[in-house]
Amino acid sequence: MSTARFPEGFVWGVSTSAYQIEGATTEDGRGPSIWDVFPGGRNGDPACDHYRRHADDVRLMKDLGMAAYRFSVSWPRVMPTGRGRLNGPGLDFYDRLVDELLAAGIAPYATLYHWDLPQALEDEGGWTSRDTAHRFADYARAVHDRLGDRVGTWFTLNEPWVAAFLGHGSGVHAPGRSSAAEAFTAAHHMLLAHGLGLEALRSAGAGRAGILLNLSPVLTPGQLGDMESRPSEEDAAAVARIDALHNRQFLEPVLRGRYPADLLALIERTAGLGHVRDGDLDLIGRPIDLLGVNYYTPTVVQARPGAVADPAFPGSEDVLFCSVPTAVTAMGWPIVPSGLTLLLRRLSREYPETEMMITENGADFVDVVTADGIHDVERTSFIEEHLRALRVSLEEGAKVRGYLVWSLLDCVEWADGYRRKFGLVHVDLETQRRRLKDSALWYRDVIARNGLPDGRTRRPTLETVA
Ligand code: PNW
């Protein structure tokens, strides 16, 4: 038997998010989101025009054999001002989408918050205001009321680290704030929103529920080459600090109902602890059914006295974020499939009870677009190598139930706009025509055989290109 099979019932699929594909940002009563007004944003129209072409996109997924589709619900489409009145046509859209998915035999996985906060809530403080977490719970309940009879898998938030620290720390994401104190406060309020949202879903009798985290193994350059190598004390301390900010800040509250002590001290120094109230962590730490793991690349750091803090990692003074001598994607993200094995090994050791799914993995590359096809051997190779790394984890006993590629379509990459291409499917920006890339055809075969093909897809080297 081929060693490259996956367990029976392993779930194959793709992920997307509302703002990145829907377009139609002013139609049928949708309110503005922070990404529609953020100076570095405003790319949401027409996106992939998925709001009108959803039936075609579901058909594509069906043809590829997808078992699951993770999409996000746009809060301002459903609740234009973030509170109170529901927008019927907005809810109708998701209602139709869910019915089409079910008719195609595809399990709908709904993400409730993928970064598109209603601007009206931002005007009242956004995630720096505790009230936003309560508004999120109301919104979660309203969406569940409409879709809960058919959607069996729910995720509260996507990547609170990105939304809090790129949105409020470095300011490269909406709403473009740059304050370390606000970033920590926003992160806590997002965690609280997860807890309150989870409670709302549970009390409504929701199926499976969890959260999506962008997790990254933090390593020294030496460890990247050889995991057995022992970092210096200073380097180990740098690793621990960045790991606390990137990973443990979210894993520990959600899965253990506590902030790590080292991080708590840092938060207290930076933002105070007035925003963390008694009972919050109990709520945030209520059991989840599924942890969504979004993995792209490891984080490589070492101690460097005098280095200034990266505003996306407040408290990262004296830490150098290293570039590493590996191949990178077009975004410049190092390609390190073994990082996925390291990450899953660590999660399995520290949270052995937690069921997981890889809910995002994929890459931006420059595709070769020709009349006879879209050739993206680098993407195929990227996914293949990550699936091999995932197989190692499964053999080690990691409880990973499925794998979702980011993403179905070439879409809007936030502040980077349309130039980033993560899709299995190419989208012509003029005509909106969809064309399957070679990677989509390859992924279809993987799904059909529940395993990898024999032999390896070869990323082109200089020799094979010449
Ligand atoms: C994730 N980082 O974003 C998101 O969930 C997607 O919406 C996005 O399109 C995808 O990954 C590709 O970027 C991230 O800077 C954005 O570490 C930035 C980072 C990580 C994830």
From TrEMBL:
Catalysed transformations (reactions): Hydrolysis of terminal, non-reducing beta-D-glucosyl residues with release of beta-D-glucose
EC number: 3.2.1.21
Keywords (A to Z) from UniProt: Carbohydrate metabolism, Cellulose degradation, DNA-binding, Glycosidase, Hydrolase, Polysaccharide degradation, Transcription, Transcription regulation
Family recorded in the similarity comment: Belongs to the glycosyl hydrolase 1 family.
Name of the protein in its database record: Beta-glucosidase
Protein's organism: Nonomuraea roseoviolacea subsp. carminata
Shown chain mapped onto the complete sequence: 1 to 466 of 784
